[in-house]
């Protein structure tokens, strides 16, 4: 077992996120990938972190090149062929906090033209649910220490899969191989009311309008493959075939936390790569109140 992980379950810490959005993103097609990742982490991220009302903010960066054998498709389920470069969770402790953030958000959304070519904000008025989280670190900032996927599931026409996918998540989370499982069940996306209100493309394709998104993490790729070959997972394939029209699995390369419990992290205050350097050097003086107050929002 990786020393960064523990057998204790830390999932309850996410209960403070009462309402949120989940937004998949594509990088601006004219921006080099390295520049996109750095700008999102070190420029756009700290800008967002300073807006009032924000209770939770984490970026998940995806790989476009790692996609083989990530998730075995059940019979009759087709793949959603739509590349993504990441997803962002923005959460709030209550509706009032979300409203304060919304009033200040034009400062943030005006910056999207510098980094994104497409994004879409899915609303979760009651937040998301973490079924299990065995990661002791609640504010990761760096390359992902898990073999982690974000699995997008689009329901068959006329099928309400919320109850089924919740049970599906419970079944998977009960396996010891699963170290993290968080389920997002957003409201259907409405192309007549594109979100977020930023000057980039927000048009969502038909097989992504009604999504369930599962974040699932394993210790290694080998652990994941063995899990997918297990009787527990194989027994779910009939249900997957009955409820899922199309799906996609995206491999997470890095997780960067900028705000947790309404408090900006070092990454949120200083930028993600600066925070990595501070941690690598062990520069504890940069964590002192007299220093952090120089960077905190009033």
UniProtKB/TrEMBL annotation:
<dbReference type="GO" id="GO:0016491">
    <property type="term" value="F:oxidoreductase activity"/>
</dbReference>
<protein>
    <recommendedName>
        <fullName>EthD domain-containing protein</fullName>
    </recommendedName>
</protein>
<dbReference type="InterPro" id="IPR009799">
    <property type="entry name" value="EthD_dom"/>
</dbReference>
<dbReference type="Pfam" id="PF07110">
    <property type="entry name" value="EthD"/>
</dbReference>
<dbReference type="InterPro" id="IPR011008">
    <property type="entry name" value="Dimeric_a/b-barrel"/>
</dbReference>
<feature type="domain" description="EthD">
    <location>
        <begin position="28"/>
        <end position="101"/>
    </location>
</feature>
């Amino acid at each position: 077992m990786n020393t960064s992980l523990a057998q204790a379950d830390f999932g309850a810490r996410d209960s403070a996120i009462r309402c949120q959005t989940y937004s998949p993103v594509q990088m601006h097609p004219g921006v080099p990938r390295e520049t996109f990742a750095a700008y999102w982490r070190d420029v756009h991220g700290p800008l967002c972190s300073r807006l009032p009302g924000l209770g939770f903010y984490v970026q998940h960066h995806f790989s476009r090149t790692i996609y083989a054998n990530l998730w075995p498709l059940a019979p009759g389920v087709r793949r959603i062929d739509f590349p993504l470069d990441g997803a962002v969770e923005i959460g709030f402790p209550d509706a009032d906090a979300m409203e304060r953030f919304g009033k200040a958000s034009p400062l943030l959304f005006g910056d999207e033209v510098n980094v994104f070519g497409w994004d879409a904000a899915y609303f979760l008025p009651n937040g998301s649910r973490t079924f299990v989280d065995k990661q002791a670190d609640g504010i990761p900032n760096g390359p992902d220490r898990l073999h982690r996927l974000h699995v997008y599931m689009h329901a068959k026409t006329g099928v309400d899969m919320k109850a089924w996918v919740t049970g599906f998540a419970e079944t998977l989370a009960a396996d010891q191989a699963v170290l993290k499982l968080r389920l997002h069940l957003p409201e259907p996306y409405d192309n007549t009311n594109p979100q977020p209100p930023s000057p980039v493309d927000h048009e969502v394709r038909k097989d992504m309008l009604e999504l369930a998104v599962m974040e699932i993490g394993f210790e290694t790729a080998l652990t994941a493959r063995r899990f997918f070959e297990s009787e527990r997972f194989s027994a779910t394939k009939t249900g997957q075939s009955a409820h899922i029209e199309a799906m996609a699995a995206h491999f997470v390369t890095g997780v960067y936390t900028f705000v947790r419990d309404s408090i900006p992290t070092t990454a949120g205050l200083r930028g993600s790569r600066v925070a990595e350097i501070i941690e690598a050097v062990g520069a504890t003086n940069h964590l002192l109140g007299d220093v952090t107050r120089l960077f905190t929002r009033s």
